[in-house]
Amino acid sequence: MDCIFCKIVNGEIPTKKVYENENMLGFYDVSPQAPVHILLIPKEHITSAADISKENSLVVAHIFEVASKLSKELNLSDGFRIVTNCGESAGQSVKHLHFHLMGGRNFSWPPG
Fold first, then answer.
1. 3-state secondary structure of 65
2. Cα distance between residue 16 and residue 38, in whole Å
3. What pLDDT score does 81 carry?
4. 8-57 pLDDT per residue, tens
5. Which domain does 77 fall in, by range?
6. Is 50 inside any structural domain?
7. CB within 8 Å of 18: residues ≥ 6 apart
8. Helix (H, G, I), strand (E, B), or coil: what is residue 73?
9. Residue 79 within a domain
10. What are the b/e assignments for 36-47, b being 16+ CB within 10 Å?
11. Which one, 45, 58, 62, 96, has the greatest CB density within 10 A?
12. Which residues are catalytic?
């Protein structure tokens, strides 16, 4: 499989990790859109949010638990944003489920 996030999980591509356990990985985005911009991914290849199922949804719940923990550790008490894009028309550029945890600045809607 030619998935950049699977290569990161397998240690083929180095990254600045902020969290890791047997099921997921958190690392700093190489093109940050906020002072804090971390990507949270399941280690299992799940293509997008459209592919979350009863069989793999526990890792998604765990990712949100870790996001809460990291938001406290990174002093994002003023607020943070968690975003996932699903499909090309929504801006998903890597076909591996991932969540952007961003904070440290004010956000507007629509995102910008």
1. helix
2. 10
3. 96
4. 999 999 999 999 999 999 999 999 999 999 999 999 999 999 999 999 99
5. 4-103
6. yes
7. 26, 27, 28, 38, 70
8. helix
9. yes
10. bbbbbbbbeebe
11. 96
12. 98
